[in-house]
Amino acid sequence: MLTGAGISAESGVPTFRGEGGLWKSYRAEELATPEAFARDPRLLWEWYGWRRDVVMRCAPNAAHVALARAADERDMTIATQNVDGLHAAASTPERALVELHGSLFRIRCTACAWCAVDRSTVDATSHDTLPQCTVCGALARPDIVWFGETLEPAHIDRTFSEAAAADLCVVIGTSGVVQPSASLASVTRHAGGAVIEVNPVETPITSIATVSIRDTAVNAVPRLFEVVG
Ligand code: OAD
Description:
Strand order of the largest sheet: 3-2-1-7-8-9
Bound molecules: 2'-O-acetyl adenosine-5-diphosphoribose
Shape: globular
Mean pLDDT: 94
Radius of gyration: 18 Å
Number of strands: 9
Distance between the termini: 15 Å
Number of helices: 10
């Protein structure tokens, strides 16, 4: 399975693109890049602090829960582009979850290897109040893969080899424009597996999908897994 921001939309988490998408009011290249962080860490932390506040008020929806149950019962991997932690909050088994783009609730040091879970409120009033490494005191950053950075090689290896071996890849709520995640469905399709897309609108995935379900994640995903068994 590949999930994107659309699976969390009905939980109240804003998507990146489309109506009401995050990038409408904030340009990606201004915010989600290492260069932007180096230029203005306070602005970046202000934005991530806001996103953390929004997500902390959200709960997993019926689509997250249906996927978690399915992952508990079968040999299945949920590769998510989302950093909101809602798949884990829906009790997805740890072995079945790959968070390709990292997590809003993990921070890491910009100078040493320190990384930690962190759900505290971000104080971005000045550079001095920003999250810091508890080992060496350097500035900390969100443990998120930004534009221009590469995904963890172990995540790429695992998800691409599993996509090639899969009978079915279900793609839920992604605009399918950010690589390499967007290619996972094509890998399954070219290896002879089926692709089911769940998205209210047409996307680049539609052209390679075996079936496209034009509905929201909450409407479609629980029913889909009842049918698939
Ligand atoms: P996007 O915001 O690009 O796309 C969200 C998709 O969800 C769109 O295709 C919507 O049509 C669809 N959608 C909206 N509501 C839905 C619903 N209720 N049910 C199902 N689908 C719905 O989000 P992503 O494709 O996840 O990266 O974006 C990929 C990456 O781009 C993100 O992980 C993020 C961003 O830059 C990083 O932050 C590193």
